[in-house]
Structure formats: structure tokens, C-alpha cells
């Protein structure tokens, strides 16, 4: 569904993405992992067309995204830090976005689950970090898109809300959506994803199913499996150096 081919992105001298190629298939759920500053958000924003690669191509359903912005209607995006018109209330913001998208069928399950209706009159600048995250999550799922890109979706949420959001993600996964999720909480990703892509210093170092990674490393937990895979890679690199 999404093909990333030899994508490079430089910011000045920094190679934020360095020759990244990755196939993302419909019905699968991808954990995009890597340390801070490794290029995860840059890759997600490149898929969304919010960052334009320095070179390389990205295809959505076989079409180059650079020539067809319509594909964005098929993606729900939850940013790491949601930036919104700060003087608007939650209700006004949601109405504005509904008006822009002009879509008849809406999925308001998260608005209900997070009880956002009770806070519709609150202005964005007055929200706690967690409530802002809930608004971002509700907006990402609102248009029932076939693709969901979630950048650290559970960060800053209270434990009850984390579970509500994880249930929603699981539900959408079962419905066959393509999910791309970053998180530093690997136990969350273990529950939510089928595949893993590990990115380090802008390079894609590993991509496979989580089951294959666990078999290769002999580890049952994703966190342990990733740590073992990284150690093994470092060992091979030091032998080859
Ligand atoms: N607009 C920009 N201008 C300059 N440098 C940028 C810009 N956006 C990202 N970078 C740099 O690109 C690198 C990759 O950043 P990115 O946000 O993709 O990392 P990340 O893997 O998502 O990190 P984190 O886990 O901290 O969210 C970082 O060194 C970052 O400082």
C-alpha cells in the first residue's frame, strides 16, 4: 500500500533519513522504533507529505505522492505534539476539521470514550498535555481512514486513557487497517503491532515480522528481542570493520 524507495532527507549537513526503503502492506501494523532523533517522525512526515524528501520516492497505492495530494484523505495522523489554533475551543476545532474534510461517515468513538463532549467549551490553550493528546487521538480516528499513522500515541495519557486508546488501536487493526506506530514503550508495541522497523541515525537497520524477530533472537518479549538484535548487529559490524 505504501512503498518507500531510497528516501534521503537532509537538514543542512544532517542526514535525518539515509537511503530508507520499506514496503508497508495493508492489514499490517508496523512498530517504527529507534532512539531519539533517529528519524522516525521525519519518515512519518515524509509519508504524509509534510516533509519533502531530498531524494527518493514514496508511493501510495502505486501512485507517487508528490503528484497526488488526494491520498492524504486516506490517512489519519496523530502527531507527537499537536499544534492547533490555541484560541479555539475543542468543539470549534472538531467542527472546523469536520467541515474541511466534508465526510459523511464519522467515527466518534474516541470522543465518547475520552468524554471530550464534556470539555467542548474549553479553549485549546487551556488544556492539559494529556487532554490535548486525547483531542489529537480523537481527530486521527475521526474519519475512519484505511491508514493510521500514530506518533507516540500513548505518551502523556493517564493509564485508563492508555487502555482505551490501545483497545481502539487493536479494534482498527482487526478491521484490517494499515497502522504505523512509534513509541518508546515497547510493551505497548508488542501488543499492538505485527511488524517492526528499526531505524538508527537515519538508516533502516532491520525490518521483519515481530514473530520472526523473536524467533531469530530467541526472546519472547519485543523489548528483549530488539536489544538482542541490536547487540548482534553491533557485533557483526565490529567483525566487518
Ligand atoms: N525541521 C527540521 N530542521 C532541522 N532538523 C530537523 C528537523 N526535523 C528533524 N530534524 C532533525 O532530524 C533528526 C531526526 O529527527 P526526528 O524527529 O525524525 O527523530 P525521531 O526518531 O522521531 O526522534 P524522537 O524519538 O525524539 O521523537 C534529528 O536530529 C532532528 O533534530
Let me know the average pLDDT: 93
Q: Output the strand order for the largest sheet.
A: 6-7-8-3-9-10
Q: Please tell me the total number of domains.
A: 1
Question: Measured on Cα atoms, how large is the radius of gyration?
Answer: 18 Å
Q: Explain this structure to me?
A:
The structure is a single chain. This protein has helices at 40-48, 90-101, 109-113, 129-141, 159-174, 186-192, 210-217, 222-240; strands spanning 2-11, 14-24, 29-33, 55-60, 63-64, 75-78, 147-151, 178-182, 195-200, 203-209. It has a single domain (2-240), classed as Rossmann fold, CATH 3.40.50.300. The strands form two sheets. Strands 6-7-8-3-9-10 form a six-stranded mixed sheet, sandwiched between helices. Strands 2-1-4-5 form a four-stranded antiparallel sheet, with helices on one face. 37% of the residues are buried. 37% of the residues lie in helices and 25% in strands. The longest helix is centred in the last third of the chain and has 19 residues, at 222-240. With 241 residues, the protein is an alpha/beta fold. The protein starts with a strand and ends with a helix. It binds adenosine-5'-triphosphate.
Amino acid at each position: 500500500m505504501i512503498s518507500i524507495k531510497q528516501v534521503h532527507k537532509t537538514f543542512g549537513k544532517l542526514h535525518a533519513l539515509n537511503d530508507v526503503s520499506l514496503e508497508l502492506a495493508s492489514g499490517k501494523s508496523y512498530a517504527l522504533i529507534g532512539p531519539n532523533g533517529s528519524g522516525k517522525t521525519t519518515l512519518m512526515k515524509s509519508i504524509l507529505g509534510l516533509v519533502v524528501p531530498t531524494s527518493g520516492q514514496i508511493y501510495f497505492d502505486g501512485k507517487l505522492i508528490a503528484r497526488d495530494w488526494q491520498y492524504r484523505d486516506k490517512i489519519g495522523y496523530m502527531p507527537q505534539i499537536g499544534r492547533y489554533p490555541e484560541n479555539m475551543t475543542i468543539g470549534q476545532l472538531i467542527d472546523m476539521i469536520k467541515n474541511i474534510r466534508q465526510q459523511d461517515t464519522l467515527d466518534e468513538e474516541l470522543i465518547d470514550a475520552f468524554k471530550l463532549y464534556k470539555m467542548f467549551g474549553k479553549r485549546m490553550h487551556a488544556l492539559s498535555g494529556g487532554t490535548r493528546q486525547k483531542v489529537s487521538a480523537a481527530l486521527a480516528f475521526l474519519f475512519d481512514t484505511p491508514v493510521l499513522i500514530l506518533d507516540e500515541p500513548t505518551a502523556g495519557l493517564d493509564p485508563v486513557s492508555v487502555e482505551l486508546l490501545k483497545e481502539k488501536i487493536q479494534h482498527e487493526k482487526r478491521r484490517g487497517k494499515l497502522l504505523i506506530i512509534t513509541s518508546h514503550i515497547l510493551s505497548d508495541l508488542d501488543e499492538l503491532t505485527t511488524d517492526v522497523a528499526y531505524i538508527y541515525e537515519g538508516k533502516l537497520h532491520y525490518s521483519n515480522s515481530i514473530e520472526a524477530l523473536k524467533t531469530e533472537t530467541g526472546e519472547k518479549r519485543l523489548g528483549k528481542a530488539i536489544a538482542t538484535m541490536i547487540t548482534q548487529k553491533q557485533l557483526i559490524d565490529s567483525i566487518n570493520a
